[in-house]
Amino acid sequence: MKVSKLLIANRGEVSLRISRAAAELEIQSVSIYSEDDQNSRHRLAADQALPLRGKGVPSYMDQEQILKLAKENHCDGIHPGYGFLSENHEFAEKCEKSNIGFIGPNSSTLRMLGDKLEAIRLVEELGLPVLPGIRKVASLEDAKEFLSEQGSIMIKALAGGGGRGIRVATKREELEELFKTCSEEARAAFGNSNVYLEKFLPKARHIEVQILGDGTGDIVHLWERDCSLQRRNQKLVEIAPAPFLPSQIREKIYSYSKTIAKHLQYKNLGTFEFLLDLEDPKNVYFMEANPRLQVEHTVTEEVTGLDLVQLQLQIANGKSLKDLSLTQESIPSPKGYAVQIRINSEIMDEKGNTRPSSGNIRLFEPSSGPGIRVDSAAYSGYDLNPNYDSLLAKLIVRSRSENFTNLLSSSLRALEEFRIVGVPTNIGFLQNLLRSKEVREYSIHTQFIQERISELVQAKPSDSKQFPFEVGSLTLSKSKSDADEIFADGIVRFASPMAGRLMEILPSEGDYIRKGQKLALLSSMKMEHVLSSEISGYVESILVSAEDTVSESQTLLLIRKSDQEEEHHTEDVSVDPDRIRVDLQEVKDRLSINEDAARSQAVSKRHKRGQRTARENIADLCDPGSFVEYGALALAAQRRRRTLEELIKLSPADGLVAGLGTTNGDLFEPHRSRISVLAYDYTVFMGTQGAMNHKKTDRFLQMIKEQRLPLVFFTEGGGGRPGEVDVPAVAGLDLHTFRQYASLKGILPRIAVNAGRCFAGNAALFGASDIRIATEDSNIGMGGPVMVKGGGLGSFSAEEIGPTSVQTRNGVIDILVKNELEGVRIAKQALSYFQGNLQKFESSDQRALRNSIPENRLRSYDIRKLIEVLADKHSVLELQREYAKGIVTSFIRVEGRALGLVANDPTHLGGAIDAEGAEKSARFLDFCNTFKIPVLFLCDTPGFMVGPDVEKKGLVRKAAELFGAGASLRVPVFTIILRKGYGLGAMAMAAGSFHAPVFTISWPTGEFGAMGIEGEIRTGFQKELAEVKDWKERQLLFERLVAEAYERGKAINMASYLEIDAVIDPVDSRKWIVRGLDSCD
């Protein structure tokens, strides 16, 4: 689709820039402006200007409003500029669906590159170098571990850019505060507090490559820029081309950028950013991609002569690179250098800390002359708007000389000639920066400014190349702020602490005021601020009026100070702390309707069936008084078919109780006992999932994902709820709940508890959980009776679908319990293994282990009794007992310390590992690895099960998965051989090799071989045995050979070859485990 009318979804200088480019291509332009942006220059630069509802940044982020304006005004294209919606894949997708051209890459590219971790994973898959890092949303614990490995790390916001949400951590003691600050800054700037981690390069250059693609796979680069001069990861000075960059590095980053862009079939303008390690200059690493027009695109334009914004518009209008005669060979090579210098309206203290300045620009006179360009929307008389970015102007200086210092000399003079009066700027700081020896030699790196900030701030800038002249009473070259004015003795100025609108001036001239007395009311940043006097005295004069807009530090009143410092005391008004205001009472009344006490009929019905309510289960799970509820006021999305009063009564909390609490708080510290809880309420529409119910779930899951809170989920319910008429939907297949719940895998432990019926969507969530607990009366299935019948599959009662007799044998249910009371108790026990070590424990008499293995090597024994003796008393929690019976997977404790245990059960297949056993073990090992729980193997296996029947169940694939899970373990692993240790099966019970665990030890009953002794003799001595014709003699020979092989494979002989680490008295098993754990801490 050809763009003939372009809406510019941005403001300020970039909006002006796009308007000019569109005009040259004879494309009509439409600007937009917020309620507080009516005096901004961009409003007048376009062919048409449209007002936005709202003020500040949110108005320019209002996707629906902007799209509506575009449609109503017949715009067929939207240019997002940079910032705001420029990298928002959802907005791009909405434009695509509305048949409006989005000037930039398509939505799928934005989605891929907008997620920085996805972009890094893609680059890794392409075989390109990236910095070592944590390839997931990082927790504080991840950061601590990564810092220990690397020594210094970068904590980086997963979303957004512009240097926000980035911190460098080098010391463990400062890490927690930096991590918290980074997350909070990311949440404030981008609405997403997630961060990821990368290795920090203390000496690096930041180089970026500008690319252009037409969506066919044809890509060209437009050379590179150097962005190393930055303050706290925010760019200040950008240069093209990168000074003194080795040619081999140039070619590398060009090649890397084109490889990535070709893979993505990239369309439009984009930038790929890299870090060059100055301590090892042959190494350059991909950092991130910016799929949009960059603030610093100007320097590329100046050295190539290309108009990048026009190229964006032409590509969007369907032109190919070939159509534009843009081959790599035809791209003009850079001629000389160009630099962009960002002039900000800001105040810097002596330590280099900055804050935006405000006020009226009394004079704005940019530099001019050959090789000088200024991109800005500022003008004389403009009142700076504190709601937006502090970038005031971009000064671009071009030099045709190949001598880099010539460029800096021209830039310094341009800064000296730049005249801005009325608001503080960073021009002096920029002069000091460009004059520094390191910049002139370009021996700088990304941390240079930060390391030298105090020196750069405090150095005296060069004299201005300006001549004083008078305009009315204003001397422009020597202008003073109000703070510089000198008043008569005893007169003190009362100034505004911030910019804003003056709502009220309370005293009159001549009034006597006391220290602490309220003088004015100021509205700033949507808040009302009371301004009080710091002295006592008489009001000499009032210099402003109500409704005036005032700037920071502007004088409001002059006060003649009194010698008496009288305090102003307001009358104490006695307030009853127990008084309940009307607004609070309304909330209390509404919330009380949700409580079980107000729903006696529903509660009675549950109790008659022997079941508890959702709130009773939560009260039992959480420590007393610790639970706080999210979304309690939610109601079913049925307001078009029911009254509000009906919904309040019928759908409290929309059938889902969600909140935070603590559990096992008597055993663990507060930060370890915190949990999150979700509970479907079967008394509300049979626990079904409604629209608000889903919305609450999605919000809650996102929050606990960010905070990494363990989750207990009570899942009873009937799946999706029909009749939600308030929400426009056909099938509702665009819900995020199930994907979001699945995405929690590996981030936080999810424990599901089910009692009663659990079908469809509820069952999907139960099944996706890490530990699945169900009561004996549970029925769990992906479809309930109605769905089964509707599918033409017959009529069945709910009790016939997915009973526990089925779901325990197939491994769906991990732990079967009698009722909800036991279910909650088991859930609390399961949580405890992730909460830490216990200080108090009891152990059994370990001497019983000496006789737990029969002396007859062919006789089976009860492995669970052995485990109960070995582990702390009452600490064993077994998973999937009825599934894959040849393998026991349990959580246990030894001296209060949690372990995951995998053991062979000799009563089933003699301890051989079958397909189901391999799958069960691999799942459990992955889980322990994810949540850093050490693993103990108790090995007694003749190996993997063999034969045609077992191969029908995919044993080869599942055995390989078990080896993969073992090899992936990053937690301490210990193996104790109880009796048989044969072949590949025994190796699998030691994470793939007897030398993989921290220790591999054996009890005296241990016996070893490359395969089972009997099988080894029958295979290896087949010929010798066949030569003995007499059956009895043949049997005697066989038994003699077996005995000899047994002697060779005894534990003592095995240890003498150092294939195992020790043979121990079984009594010492716990001692070995504890020593092993201590050695790994």
UniProtKB/TrEMBL annotation:
One of its GO terms (molecular function) is metal ion binding. SMART domains: Biotin_carb_C (SM00878). Residues 2-454 form the Biotin carboxylation domain. Pathway: Lipid metabolism; malonyl-CoA biosynthesis; malonyl-CoA from acetyl-CoA: step 1/1. Residues 120-317 form the ATP-grasp domain. It holds the Pfam family CPSase_L_D2. The keyword NAD does not apply. Residues 840-1081 form the CoA carboxyltransferase C-terminal domain. Keywords: ATP-binding, Biotin, Ligase, Multifunctional enzyme, Nucleotide-binding. The keyword Membrane does not apply. Its cofactor is biotin. Its EC number is 6.4.1.2. Residues 491-560 form the Lipoyl-binding domain. Residues 579-846 form the CoA carboxyltransferase N-terminal domain. GO terms for biological process: malonyl-CoA biosynthetic process. This is acetyl-CoA carboxylase. It comes from Leptospira langatensis.
